[in-house]
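Below is how a single chain appears once it has passed through the pipeline. First comes the sequence as given, then the structure the pipeline wrote out for it. We keep one example in the README because the format questions we get most often are answered faster by looking than by reading.
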Amino acid sequence: MSKKRTKRTDKATDTGEFNKATEDSDEVSRGYDYEEDVEDDLGDDDLPYGSLALKDDELGDPSLLEDEYLDDLDDLDDDHLFDESRAESFTPADDPVRMYLKEIGQVPLLDTNREIWLSIQMAAERLYQSLVDRLCADTDEATLRARCPDGQPSPSAIMLAAYEEVLTNWKLTLRECSRFGVEPPNLPALIREMQMVFDEWDHAAPSGIRDYLRQRDWGRDDPWTDLARVLFGVIHAVYLLPFGVQSRLISFYNQKGSLPSLDVIAGWIADAPILIEGLNERFEQIEMQAEFASEALTRANLRLVVSVAKRYMG
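Resulting structure:
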C-alpha cells in the first residue's frame, strides 16, 4: 500500500463544496457565450465543485495589465487563444507569456459532467485518506495491531470502512428522498457510472448523478443540497470499492431492492478473496487519479479565467 501523503492545506469537506451547475450539456457543446452570458454563468453558486471562477473584484483592474498584452487578449476567442500564424513569429525565449497563453488556449473547457467526475475522483481520495487516519487512530493496542499490523490498515479493513460509509449515507439519502416525496436515485446506475469514471472520466455520456440532482435548485435550495451532500457521500465511498464488490452490489440491489449488510460483505470477501485482489493497486490508482484531476481542473479554470479577462477588456 502506498504511504499516506501529506494532507492538503486547503482540504475541504468531501461533499459540502459541490454547488449547482446550471449550464445544459447542449449549451456547453456549442461553447459559452462569454459576451452575453458570463455574468450569469459565473455566479457564486453556479459552477460545480472544483471550479475557480473569479468575482469582479478578484479579477482586478484590467488596466493594470501590461499594455503590450492587451491586444493579444482582445484577439482571444473561445477556441484558439492565438492564431497559429502569429504564434510562429516568436519563440518561447522571445515571449514566455504569449507561449503560456497559447498553451492554455489549447486546454478544452470542461462541461458540468466532467467537472463533477473529476471532483468525485478528488473527493474519493480524500475519503480514503480520512479512513486510513480513522482506522489507525488512538485505540486499544490489540485492536490497533489487528487493524494496522504494518502501521497501515489492511486493504480489506479500508474497504469495509468505505462500505460502512455507503450504508450510512444511503440510509440518510433515503430519508431525505422521503422528506421531499421523490423517488430515490437509481443506485445500480450510479454504481455503474462510478465504474465508468474509474476507467475513464473523459466521456460524453450523460451523468445520472447530475440528472437526478437537477430535479430541484441544487446549490441554492439548502434542504435539497443536504440531500446532494449525503448522496455524494454514497458515491465517494462506492468509488473506493473494488470492481467485483461493486458488481455484486448491483446484482444484490436489483434482486432485493436494498443493500446488503456489512456482515454479508465480509462474508463475500471471506468466501471469495479474489474480490479484493489488487485492492492496494486500486487505492494507489485512486491517489494518482486525484492528482491528475486536480491538475486538469486547474488548467481548465485557467483557460476560463483568460476567457473572462477577454470579456472584461471589451
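Confidence is low (pLDDT under 50) at residues 1-76, 78-87.

See the next section for the split statistics.
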